[in-house]
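Cross-check.
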Amino acid sequence: LGDVYKRQVHGDKVKAEEDESIVRVSEQILAKEPSDKEVKACQVIGLIKQNKLEQALKEIQKLGGNAGPSLNYANVYALYKLNKLDECLGLIQKFRGSDEKQQLAYQIIEAQVYNKQNKFDEAMKVYMQIVEKDKDNEEYCELVVNMLSAAVNNFGKEPPNRLISIGEEALQRDDLIRELMFNLSLAYMNRTDFEAAEKLLRRFEKALEEEQEDDQEDQNDKVMSELQRDYITLSIFDLQDQELENKVKTYERYLELEIEKSLKVVATNNLVLLNSKKGTFGAAENLKRLDEALTLDAKRTFAQTLLMNLNKMLIYLVKNKQTEATKALGDLEKTFGQTLNTLEQFVAGKFCLLAKSRNQKEFDQLYENLLKENHPLLFKVSIILMRAELYRQQQNHKKQLETLKSIFMLDKSILENELLANYLITIITQGQSGLQEFKDLLIQLSTDTQNSVVLNIVGDIFTKEKNFAGASDVYQRSYASSPNYATLQKLIYTLANVDHVKAKEYIAKLPQIQIITDQNDLRRLEIDFQNMSKQRAEKDRREQKLEDTSKAIKKKKKKVRYPKGFDPENPGPPPNPERWLPKYMKSKYKKSGKKKLRGPQGMATGKETTSTFATGPSTATQDVSTVKQRKGRRRK
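Predicted model, tokenized:
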């Protein structure tokens, strides 16, 4: 038995079909030597390789707390394969020792567990610790690929700079790993660095062409790269009708190809987006496509499943189907939980749905919770802008201004963003009372910021309002941070209305006029002036000629034709002013209309006479005549 065991376990290569015999031999040895941990480890590993995980765990539990490092690791791995993830994490924390090799092995399983739990942020951090600690690892590039994958799946969060640097270093070490190039391009996309992502995808496609294998895997990779490049294009540009038509045909062709089902899922989602832009299919057709893609037995990432469900909710919302949108929203929250609060698309959809349902209390509660949570600054700015936009649609200018005011309270660094500051100031100054209400805020803004563009915008507003003192102070700070001729002009103009002495000081800073002394330059200026004078004179002559021609055109006077016998000198009484009114509106008809009876048939009017019901001549007692009446004239 010992010879058989050594030959099978300690041989150079152990075939997969020998796992069963290894387990059988190990059991025979353990029957005689139950305390041999090395043989026990071989038995457990053989069971794990045969996917008999429950039996492997039972064998480990028989040893109690004396299993040893190898069996402890096997115990953790078996739990991971059985998806007993919480128990697996608990044992990792327990068995992780001081040995670096053991720590690395346990960290890799820990990262994989976080991936399975959709805790991509924790998985990314563990992978970063591994690759920074052990750069000489043989599987370094593969670990970097997994790290980038976790960062990409960490939907709604921007990959950190250090992660991008590690990816670039790994790419320099081995630029032939296609997965590394592709995942790094996706990380750049999550950072909205589309230029770097496009370059890496081009390199990825070039590597595919150079290999020239043209097998099923290469076809999948090519389609995958084209899908990502289309995402970049759609994120940056608005396609024309013909371009949209071509893209739709391309995606319909993808769905007919023999490619991975997961790629067909992505193609379907993109096709729904293109059809929505193009208006080819209605909401029902797009929803049908999304449902088919979601029910397809395909491997989907967390982000893909989330986006497709989110698109369903947004389609319902755009089509004003509030009941269906509310149900889709509830399903999203039940499935994906708090992850959704980091997505601008979801928050925007929920805000819109709550605003349409007029659920102001829940709307305000969601808004306050999102601002209290630990979100990035720009995400909070987006939330405030969403709320302000909803108030604008409701034409509630006062609430819109109050909401925008809260942006300035978040962080002073926002004031350095020229585009955002310009937008906020524009909205504030649009309302009739906005400038007066936010005058103190504008002063505070000009005091806190050092951005010359923002300072110039505030200075222009003060100048327009004839607040030359405030404008001159703002322009002085702007000129001090960024001296330029345009700001100097504005500063001199405002100081001329406030402080003449300071205005003269700044006038001295104006660039001196260059005096031309060269005769050739002077002659050139004279010629240019003469040409300009001739052009101006020719233009004036044409305008004068056009004016004279228009005056010369005489309008033909038509003779007025009067009715026969009409004397314009003595026209007589004017026509009846009510001649064009309807009959029931004329005063004459109104008088006669009041005399008519009103009410149902048989109703007494109060003016009956005593003879109303008196008897008189009647034909009630006479027989009916049987003589036929004479017919009318015969036809000729």
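The radius of gyration is 44 Å. Residues 101 and 622 are 132 Å apart (CA to CA). Passed to J.P. for a second look.
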